[in-house]
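ARCHIVE RECORD
Type: protein–small molecule complex
Small molecule: iron/sulfur cluster
Source of inputs: curated submission
Record status: active
Notes field left blank by submitter.
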Amino acid sequence: MLSKLSTPHLYSNTYTDNVEGFLLVYNPISEHGISILNKEAAFLFNLIDGKKKLDDFFNLAKKESAEVEFHDIERVFNDFFHSEIIFFDSPKNKNIIFQKPPKHLGVWLHVTNQCNLRCKYCYVRKTNEKMNKKTGVKAIQNIIRDAKKNNFKKITIKFSGGECLLEFNYVLELIKLTRTLAKKADIKSDFVVLTNGVLLSEKIANTLKEKKIRAAISLDGLQKYNDNRVFPSGKSSFSYVEKGINNLLKIKVPFNVSITITSKNIENIPDLTKYLLKRNIPFAFNFYRENPYVKEELEGDDKKLVKYLREAYLLIYNNPPRYSLINGLLDRVTFSKPHLYTCGMGNSYIVVRQDGRIVPCQMTLEKPIGSIDDLDLIKTMKDGNFVKPIGLTVEGKNPCHTCQWKYICCGGCPLLTFKQKGKYIVNSPCCAVYKALIPEVLRIEAKRLIKYGIRDNEGHIGEMPSQLPL
Ligand code: SF4
Ligand code: SF4
Ligand code: SF4
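STRUCTURE (tokenized, with ligand):
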């Protein structure tokens, strides 16, 4: 209960910016994401100094408009408090957020080593091997058994390869089995096919829709700019992928496009963005990570990354779609809620190879840490965490622990950091790019919230503008 003597305080490291006449407020330890304040609410917010009491705010607001009542002030500060952008007596204990055990298990099922493409940056050693029925069934049974035992409430299975649509009937069988077992275990389940898009026929699109399966399609650029992703003959895959995308669009199958940015497609990122926005397709930008099978130098340099991503961001800012793109605009930086680890590796993410061996993440397919026959796959996952020291969070990385963005960035992909810097306890090699672009991603989300006046439908981030009759 607030009174005239209540004194609001700001959280440390709060970030603010002006966007289209509104004030964007981001508190790094808020689970509510960013808040957007209108002019009057911003006036009050900007007066907070940890000393003024609500009565002082009331008197100052009264000077601006005689109509203001104390309960208006009370309501706005209540709003601020519930949006977690201020506190009164003591700040929210961040351990309450960080000590919550994960409830959502991500599963990456690598159903085949075969693929109909030969992408230049592929991290899969292509062979004829694929997951057999016995292995797939056992994987699903044991994953659900251990998810239940370890209190997970939801699993998302991503089918991958190779090209998982080469084994589409098998994928459908596994989905059917998962749905039955997950329901019995009272665990929610959902499914995504990770595909290069070439095989997305009308028939497959219809089945995806009917069975409520999402798709994530890899596409890196328009026409020749997608030529990191070619057929074994060297032929371009663009027109095939575009056809697949059109098949999904025609019957409204939910999907997104996953873009890997390399030195070869970087300058096409703005045009690709325009193309996707025009078609209302959600998308995500990932930075290319080197792997043992790539001969060429494919990394985009930092200056170019910032330049072309800024161009793409401007297009989005000027015409934000209704859906939130915020968690896909900057590689591994995710804004949904504060977190201590960049990814689920070792905590909430299991990768099962075609032969039933478990690996820590999809980029370490050659380094198994156990198998689906293990007694507790969650334990296998935890024991197989390759980051050293085990349990290292962003708080243990230097200089990340002092960074304003630590709970959304967490220091980037640990695998990449180790590869380039030889240790895990330091910041990402992409740090400068992240720091340059995080404020711009926040601005895009703010613009979207302002444009549509919505609390959010997909990205679970953002607040309605606070209203005050001044
Ligand atoms: S589509 Fe995927 S698995 Fe196939 S070659 Fe390309 S990156 Fe590799
Ligand atoms: S990598 Fe850079 S931006 Fe990310 S948390 Fe560390 S210091 Fe901050
Ligand atoms: S370690 Fe890197 S590549 Fe592996 S899951 Fe995490 S972010 Fe992704």
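CURATOR ANNOTATION: The chain has two domains: 9-92, 98-383.
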